Amino acid sequence: MGVYRGNESARVLQYRVSKNKLYKIGAGIYWEGVPDPAELLRELTWQGMMITGPTQLQVYKEQSVTFPLHVATTRGVKSTRFIRFHRVRNTDSCGYLGLRLHSAVFAVAYMDDEAAIELLEEAYKGKDGLERLESTTRKLPNRTRKLIAQAAIGTDSPAEKNLIYALRDAGLQCTNNVLIGDYRWDIKVGNVLIEVDGYAHHGLMAENRTQFRIDRWKANDAALRGFIVLRYSARCVFDHERIIVEQIKTAVECAPESLPKTLPEINEEPMWRRGFWKWGSYWDLD
Known about the structure:
about 20% strand; alpha+beta; DUF559 domain-containing protein; three-stranded antiparallel beta sheet; disordered C terminus; Restrct_endonuc-II-like; four-stranded mixed beta sheet; 12 helices; Endonuclease, Chain A
């Protein structure tokens, strides 16, 4: 039925709780009827609390939230079987699906390492993930910094994540979602650039034909800058991960140690496609 907003005395409230007519959720918070996790979570955020820890991961993964809910608050509130209250000093947060989420770099404090890394990857996925993460100016605990170093920040592709983990396990230092010139690359290892594409990426739809052309200019741009470019399908990563890692290791060994300081002198005036791509315009040339 929802949060109870009556003004009875503490004695009356306790009596109603004993008769299962009300449920005590937390200090001063009572619920009529059987508490629903999703409804309760929304009510808590309306009251200024922030979703944190395991519950935040459930929200990002669009899973059904379960008890106990984990919320962060600046007040000292005793936990119940419905809610784990975490008292915090920092209030960095963001809005998501109408909810208020505690900054993920602090939410991981209430999770084991594996779940914490998964939360960081969910919270900071996408092309702007690294920028959003780097905008966190507060000093982070050493554990959080180590978790960030292990996470594949800035990608929402399972194949990319798998390959990044495999490369790191092989002792290769890699970064992902890297901007080189006007183009963004999935993974960079030394002076080797790697792209991981799904089959739909270069399908027959008009927008994918456009992407196919853009990728030609992108690969050429990287080659002119002195990089070795490798491309794999997502299916190849899943089926032949070990071989791909060995190929990348070989490419890193063969790649030049230093890159040209400037691109060769090329008349790029006809390459107005680059400008159109950069500003998000649509073009369709044969």
